[in-house]
Amino acid sequence: MVCPYPHGEGFALRFPRRQAPNELPPLPDSKKLLATFRQYNSWLVRLGIENVGALNNAIQDHRTAEIILVSEALHEHRIAEIASRILEATRDLRIVLIAGPSSSGKTTFSKRLAVQLLAQGISPFPLELDNYFKDREHTPRDEKGEYDFESLEALDTHRLQADLQRMIAGEEIQLPRFNFRLGISEPGEVVRLEKDQLVILEGIHGLNPGLLPDISQNKTLRIYVSCLTQLNLDRTTGFPPRTPVSCAGLSEMRATGDTALSRP
Predict the structure, then answer these.
(1) 107 backbone dihedrals φ, ψ, rounded to 5°
(2) How confident is the model at residue 37 (pLDDT cuts 50, 70, 90)?
(3) Distance from the CA of 72 to the CA of which of 33, 66, 78, 162 falls in 20 to 30 A?
(4) Secondary structure class of 211 (helix, strand, coil)
(5) 156: nearest Cα among 170, 177, 172
């Protein structure tokens, strides 16, 4: 069972799930996601590389440097737009949370966003979520008995929330620093935020409401970073967006001599 469904200027093909082949699940209203794909498509048209074949032709025509420069410029333009939105909301906004899966570019995005904020007169303070890991003996384990570092329970959310509230209030605090070799939390640097200074907090749990449940949503802005878009092989054959990320991870392993990708 395949059902076309009018959607915006086109239509969406709806397929049933394997568990219920005679039923169509409801179509989610993903306006932001749809807008992202449409913007990405317009970028590809602008670059003249709507599929892998067109990309190969562009490389043969010695347009590689041009494509990279224009792609970087489009990315920076988008980050500048986000920075402008943050500037408009700085009266109440104090914390910017950046979430996304592993290898999605969260750290790179955070650094570029910080540059754009500095260019607009905002001095952000980067806070590393990894420093709020619990001591190894208190780290939860998964069903295989291995440490589950991606679980929210692996973080000391109570201290994180308390530290952020004190920082926002202008108090001087001592941050933790996690020693990954020993698996324990140690005293870190002593900091005090400047007036109206923003905190940029990056981590996979940035969208999780359980991360900062007692801090007002008016004081936070949550940004999701992910490799959602893809470059199709041709007009009818897709290319899974996670494939380039997996290849990049394998290349990094080979370059460093690692035998497996793992968290600390």
Answers:
(1) -65, -45
(2) confident
(3) 33
(4) coil
(5) 177
